[in-house]
Amino acid sequence: MTAHDPAALAEALPRPLLQVRDLSVRFPGRGDGKALKAVDRVSFDIGPGQTLGLVGQSGSGKTTTGRAILQLQKTYSGSVKLLGEELTTMPAARLRQMRRHMQFVLQNPYSSLHPRMTIGQILREPLQVHRSVPPARLQDRVAELLDLVSLDPGMMQRYPHEFSGGQRQRVVIARALAVSPDFIVCDEPVSALDVRTQAQIVDLLQSLQVKLGLSYLFIAHDLAIVREVAHRVAVMYRGRVVEMGSAAQVYDSPAHPYTRVLLDAVPVPDPVRQRERLRRPPPDLRFLEGDGGGCVHGDDHASSNTAEWHEVAAGHGVSCRYWPLREALSREPGEVGNTGLPVL
After folding, report:
1. pLDDT digit string (tens) for 91-116?
2. Count of alpha carbons within 13 Å of 157, Cβ hemisphere only?
3. What is the CA radius of gyration of the chain?
4. Each residue of 151-204: pLDDT tens digit?
5. Helix 165-177 crosses helix 138-148 at what angle (to 10 degrees)?
6. What whole-number distance in Å separates Cα of residue 4 and Cα of residue 220?
7. Looking at CB atoms within 10 Å, which of 194, 254, 324, 337 has the fewest?
8. What φ, ψ does residue 186 adopt, rounded to 5°?
9. What is the pLDDT of residue 263?
10. Where would I find the beta strands (DSSP E) of 297-336?
11. Measured between alpha carbons, how far is 222 from 74 in angstroms, rounded to an integer?
């Protein structure tokens, strides 16, 4: 296998809108004083009109990564470029101007909207801050935004408590669209909604992406939804990207035991297949422990601080700390997938 880092895989994407290289975030430690590596040398690209799904269990660093990209969280090291401009060292005045190109859709629509402001006031605020439309057009622009997310413009005088959860999330999306951004971080945008409303919001995000040419970083723990919306998928564990590739590569030929654990947690509608899957022994996750454990180059990587990464197939990579893992990954002896790896 040829060794690569995640950045090398990211370079394969044409004309990236967003470039993230070796992004790290650290928080002050407790007790022993060691800093917590919330995000550790994360690299990826997102092209225009593309969606990168960022998946992993709670505490893996997904939200912190999204906040660091938007410069809402101080970074420890690394580079974040949007439209070719470096955000991490950008002066505050210029960063404020750049914020119109990048927006955030938060997880909880119930806490994302000011309860004492009408929907019209909420949507007018970013327009006034960024001066993106003349004052005479504010009312018309608010009406356009509500229509864009399939809400009646006549609702703009209502307050958030008068809306359902799905309607509130549409308002949150409309607020993000107010300044015509190029890139949106969607942080668990449907996790607080019922299943039917989730499908409606996902359809809305996809239609807006096609209509407006938006790029998304879609953060979620629901792998079924991520497969529906993402062109590429990155799997995070303990602040690091342990696998990355196209949605088809990651879901159909996962190369990392942690990815398999996440996929096995998704129920399947066939009870026979579900029972068979539950009978399989879980992969040995001891490979995930320690700085160099399980990696044939562990000592070298620990001393040189280089990324442990192997290319599985074109555009599909896995952390080499957990490579090779044929015995841990295989379902049946000798059963091999189209990448040359055991079928999962």
Report:
1. 999 999 999 999 999 888 888 899 99
2. 1
3. 21
4. 999 999 999 999 999 999 999 999 999 999 999 999 999 988 888 999 999 999
5. 130
6. 26
7. 194
8. -105, 105
9. 86
10. 310-313, 316-318
11. 27
Distance CA(177)–CA(171), nearest Å, equals: 10
CB-based contacts of 50: which residues, under 8 Å, 6+ apart?
13, 17, 215, 216, 231, 232
Phi, psi torsion values for 301, nearest 5 degrees: -65, -40
Q: Report the DSSP pairing between strands 183-187 and 102-105.
A: parallel
Distance CA 43, CA 25 (A): 13
> Which residue is it, tokens 């004309």?
15
Amino acid at 111: S
b/e for 166-179, b at 16 or more Cβ within 10 A? bbbbbbbbbbbbbb
**CA-CA distances (angstroms) from residue 116 to 76, 113, 132, 199, 206?**
37, 9, 24, 29, 31
Q: Would you report the helix, strand and coil content of the chain in percent, each value rounded to 5?
A: 40, 20, 40
One-letter amino acid at 213 equals: G
Question: Burial, 33: exposed, middle or buried (Cβ in 10 Å; 0-12, 13-18, 19+)?
Answer: exposed
Where do the domains of the chain lie, and which CATH numbers do they carry? 6-329 (3.40.50.300)
Note if the bond before 324 is cis, omega within 30 degrees.
yes
228 token code pair: 């529906």
Nearest partner of 110 among 57, 162, 59, 186, judged by Cα: 162
**3 pLDDT band (50/70/90 cuts)?**
very low
Distance of CA 325 to the CA centre of its chain: 26
The candidate with the shortest Cα–Cα distance to 262, out of 227, 290, 296, 313, is: 227
What distances in angstroms separate CA 344 from CA 228, 264, 280, 325, one per listed residue?
Answer: 20, 10, 11, 12
* Neighbour-count burial for 136-157, b at 16+ CB within 10 Å, e otherwise: eebeebbbbbbebbebeeeebe
3-state secondary structure of 30: coil
The tokens describing 300, both together, are 């070298």
